[in-house]
């Protein structure tokens, strides 16, 4: 009998503990307090993370309501002309990697459908990514336009090959100056030399004769194609093609070319050169028999260093750093 009472007291205490349900009440209260604190933080974090996209949707709704007529005229022009756009990722407000060239097929219900013409391989998840699209400059009511900023609504991809892109219609269409560097008018043939190859020769161009190049005495090349330089910057070059012929590489907008640019150092009198891929951004006829090309440097070639002579191409965004450092000498 002496051991019976302690056991009875212990069981009585256990029974009382579970009978009142105080433990369950404490858990509900704690959980409620956590929700009161955590939920606002999560909501505020989500709003901050998507602030740019939410602002885009808000302003887009307003601008399309107020300027729907002008927006509609621009979009009809882009669709009816089958305008090709260059789609580039925006990363922290700066130009990132190029995604593709695509033709605008339709604009309906706030969505812009693009047919991909040419694309770089990518495994990126593009949905919801911010992009800038460049088009060939056009004018409307005295205003110039050549770009717009928007978001990727959806995309189609097979493996790493981009097949289709759907964009949200933008807040507005605008004119963007793409040139980020001051071009230097270094156009003497004894100071700057340029050789150009068709992009198809990029793997073995070093062992091939250039398709067209600058010459020291243009008077000896009457009737034959040759190049002269208008100006140059770390981001691009202005070239003039004299006596263009059919045998030359395709000299159309958005076509890439392999280029070797050599510039004489004013101090050492030695030539410094860079190998680049340049993409034609503008094209016009300066005079009869002369074609002007505005070319942006999009990739830089570097030797692989294994003795094979092969070139490795690396994309450049804000110009060629080595060329920028070298051109600074001409400012001194």
From TrEMBL:
It comes from the Bacteria. Keywords: Membrane, Transmembrane, Transmembrane helix. The chain crosses the membrane at residues 30-50. This is PilZ domain-containing protein.
